[in-house]
Design brief:
Elements lengths: L3 H30 L3 H12 L6 H8 L3 H13 L3 E6 L2 E9 L4 H18 L5 H24 L2
Antiparallel strand pairs: 1-2
Helix pairs in contact: 1-2, 1-5, 2-4, 3-4
Length: about 150
């Protein structure tokens, strides 16, 4: 068995490297649109995850602070790329919806995300990827349990 501190350090280092590489992959779209990487990421997150459509969802799923999400959402709304909609039955919630105007940007972003995923998985067989997905699912469930009740 690997030494736990080594595993944790490696995972955290790779999480940071992943984020850096992902934002670098989005860079062409950022340069085309003048949007910062996190704004593009938020737009793509909403487009790719329609069930997670509130600022709170973005904060929880992407680990971004509410104030930062608010700034980027305001910018995307002002540019006509996102729209705010009331949630029937809950006046405290506001749903964020991608507009038709955002469709070309989303398509370009998804192509960049696909290219990133393809490059990231170079050299891995379909069996290795299936095992990786199984490991990620187990990690996710274990992390949820640790967050809920500790070790």
């Amino acid at each position: 068995m690997l030494e736990p501190n080594f595993v944790a350090a490696t995972m955290l280092r790779n999480a940071n490297k992943f984020a850096e590489a992902y934002y670098r992959a989005l860079q062409p779209l950022c340069l085309e649109t003048g949007l910062p990487p996190l704004a593009v990421d938020i737009l793509l997150f909403l487009a790719n995850n329609p069930a997670y459509n509130t600022a709170k969802d973005i904060c929880q799923c992407r680990g971004v602070k509410p104030g930062i999400v608010s700034v980027h959402v305001d910018r995307l709304v002002n540019l006509g790329l996102l729209a705010r909609q009331d949630v029937p039955g809950d006046r405290r919630k506001t749903r964020l919806v991608c507009t038709d105007q955002a469709a070309p940007l989303i398509a370009r972003g998804r192509a960049l995300q696909q290219a990133f995923a393809t490059r990231l998985t170079d050299g891995l067989s379909s069996e290795e990827l299936a095992q990786f997905h199984k490991c990620i699912a187990a990690f996710s469930a274990n992390l949820d349990a640790i967050r809920a009740s500790g070790i």
